[in-house]
UniProtKB/TrEMBL annotation, chains A, B, C:
Xref: Pfam families: MC_hydratase
Name this protein carries in UniProt: Beta-methylmalyl-CoA dehydratase
Gene symbol of the encoding locus: mch_1
Gene Ontology MF: a single term: lyase activity
């Protein structure tokens, strides 16, 4: 067999390391497409002049573009036969990434847990995105429910890893260069609100909505070289329970992040991902809205920036003025994403 | 409130200056997307080698890409609560813009006129797009009909500005570097017709048609960081009188300009915008056609280029062999755009 | 007439040379769009670091991006009034092309053959894509069925050229720089299979499927500055026998090539095109699948790479596990493309 059928649950071994294909040089072309697909307006990532004024050598990539490129490489080895993408934890953006850099990804299998019905199992991986010199730019854990080829196959060693509920903000503090917060122009950035203006418990409706088209999510998902066929093959999708293509969960994350500009314009860089859950699928024609809650604020000993712990909830076809949220054991039926992360904001 | 609800008519003050977010570094990625979204074929903007042969340092951006980027920034402050974009005047492209430059926009409120029913008012702004050094690259006036938050609110000072019906071509003459018209290769440019071959009153049907898809105009409008929700939120649009998303008027301008290549291939750079009107809305699935009339020709004392004053009319779902035009007080029902502008053409 | 109505069959002269508009500088922006539109994952074209490790100065363009740009220029002069694109032969990629290079195209009319009903005729051209210095980067022959303006018009001279059935692989051997095959990292490339692992007669189902949207093929076809109206004008298409827009045949070639990664990940560069036929049209909403057959292997005296002669067959709405193929005089009704080409693979 010269083609990749994808791995099944019994093909993974605890502790094994997988070097993923295909390394990818990110460019100004990717940045333009990212802007066109999601509409982010964070000034640091949009303007070299703005970025340079506060101490960057030039505009860095949107952190989620880095995330998607690093993530995309893992799909052929990790989630081609996945039933569901269950969660994220311990995500850390180690430094800004710039156009011209080459990213590649290695994953370590850090957990395996067979389902009680023996049809599937949960694979836990820690994926590390590196630059051409091998230095880490991003690492995160995710766990996915993967089919077994043979329900009877035995699993050599099982283990459920203990993952932090929240990334320690001190561990994220060094991810940005030293910045000149006094040169951060609030008019050009689009909001007068700095780190000190946000309070724990504050809720912000991001107001705007964005309708998603098939062409858009396909273009995005291919840009990230994410090959999961559920996003691309409508002929095969007709026979699934949804009857149509599923939109890559990361597409929702990027839409929610871009929408969050309206209320969080100065949360200009992601620092860490504490937890993330794709609560329900998104389909073409649906309109995405989002709201955020300030879960915490962290002063990490820098006089230029602080960290906000944010929880951004995205919905489909329901504006977020009422902050649709968890309900009992589950969620308001409109909720599709619940993401808990740290972001930098100027002081 | 940390989110931007948009300004209402009574929030504007005559003479006030608004510095818009978000500065934007334009790149080769934006150029590629612009090509892919509209299909322009003007050789100067397409080929560094062609541009250099006639005296440019490299290919400049399509002038309308510059226009859309400069325009997009004004939307959150000027037209978020606009009912209609009424017109343009006194537009001038001051110099070519190149990939790598950073653009930002400042608008001055030059006119305010409340409607007689006091529900709305017309806001006139002069928007100036500048480079990182603060030098103007483009300025234009536009006026929009904006809702009042409170119909009873008083307006401090009203004024209807007097705007030129036509930009003086002498004021535009210096917008291009000195070019070597003898090195302008007509085969590569796609047409044998130079400045002297066009006559006032001449009408040209641009023949080709272009059907627009939702994904295309959304991708374009986000690329320009234009945030007007009528272009993106189909869930909200269902309850409007159109029942669907409206396409950004600038999308029509760019389509018409790209179509105009067939007949005006050597009108390679825009110089000024005299007047512009979005006569009717365009929707996804519609096909855009265009025709142009030569309103005037201007020899501005350069031996390399002259200026054509062109009026380009775009229609939807109706080819333009019969030059559909004004009818009585209004327009042929197929007309969607009436744009009057100056363009450079080699002698 | 200042607009281009396209040439008709009687407008061509045997031996004439046509310099096509519009030269085009290809950039990292075009590369990003190509990735986003087709999803290729070949490591050499994706990663500067990977390319440099084996001896390239940086990542070259995907060869099909070069092909489409070179091809696009010929459309206004060759195929605007074409009824059908009949075939390709004698295609040779002469060297890698890099972002920043400017491509232009010249075609020579090498054959003319009027149809027996005198309504149409076949035009054979050899199109040569060159860099800014005039050096050839790609040449290929194609022949198209073109309408006559006047069925009675006489044809000065007819000739059916004799075209090679297969390009001699020795003539293609020099198209790549000398590479260090030992530095070719099979993990990062995505497959352990080198040149020696493929056998004549081997058949590979590429498994994955890709559904095509109107916005996608229009964005791609405009990127290539291909102006054939059948791809863009749905208003006019309603009155054709298909009743809708046709997708550019080159779009299918690129999709099939990208799908072929799954099974041919190390066939990283195209060398030549022996033959190609668009067997049936593709429409928006259709899903493309592909399979390949190894027609031949050629050792061309290089110790770094060999050449595989591949035949890639694409289908619509039918997976290729059963290798749908020719049937009697024609083809399995699902087949849309039959492409015979040479590709380099590391030893």
């Amino acid at each position: 067999m010269k083609t990749n059928p994808g791995r099944f649950f019994e093909d993974y071994r605890l502790g094994e390391t997988i070097r993923h294909a295909t390394p990818r040089t990110v460019t100004a072309g990717d940045v333009a497409l990212y802007t066109a697909l999601y509409g982010p307006r964070f000034a640091v990532q949009s303007s070299d002049a703005f970025a340079q004024a506060i101490g960057y050598p030039r505009s860095p990539l949107d952190d989620l573009l880095t995330f998607h490129v690093v993530f995309g490489k893992t799909v052929p080895d990790i989630s081609l036969n996945a039933v569901a993408n269950l969660g994220y934890a311990e995500g850390g953006f180690r430094r800004p990434v710039y156009p011209g850099e080459t990213l590649s990804t290695v994953s370590e299998v850090i957990g395996l847990k067979e389902s009680s019905n023996r049809q599937t199992g949960v694979v836990y991986v820690r994926s590390v995105g590196s630059d051409a010199a091998g230095e880490t730019v991003l690492s995160y854990c995710r766990w996915v429910l993967v089919r077994k080829r043979d329900p009877q196959a035995a699993i050599a060693e099982e283990h459920v890893p203990s993952l932090a509920k929240v990334v320690d903000p001190q561990d994220l503090a060094g991810a940005l260069p030293r910045l000149d917060a006094s040169a951060y122009d609030l008019d050009l950035a689009g909001s007068p609100h700095r780190f000190g203006d946000y309070q724990r418990g504050e809720r912000i409706d991001h107001v705007d909505g964005m309708t998603v088209e098939e062409a858009e999510h396909q273009i995005a998902t291919r840009l990230f070289q994410n090959t999961a066929k559920v996003h691309f093959d409508n002929h095969a999708a007709k026979d699934t329970r949804f009857g149509r293509r599923l939109i890559y969960g990361g597409h929702v994350i990027s839409l929610a992040r871009a929408l969050s500009f309206n209320g969080l314009a100065n949360a200009f860089a992601l620092a860490g991902i504490n937890a993330g859950r794709h609560v329900a699928p998104l389909f073409s024609g649906d309109t995405v809205y989002a709201w955020s809650e300030v879960l915490d604020t962290a002063d990490v000993g820098r006089d230029d920036v602080g960290l906000l712990r944010l929880r951004t909830v995205a919905t489909k076809n329901q504006p977020c003025g009422a902050h649709p949220d968890r309900q009992g054991e589950g969620y308001d039926p409109a909720v599709i994403l619940d993401l808990d992360y740290w972001a930098f904001m100027p002081k």
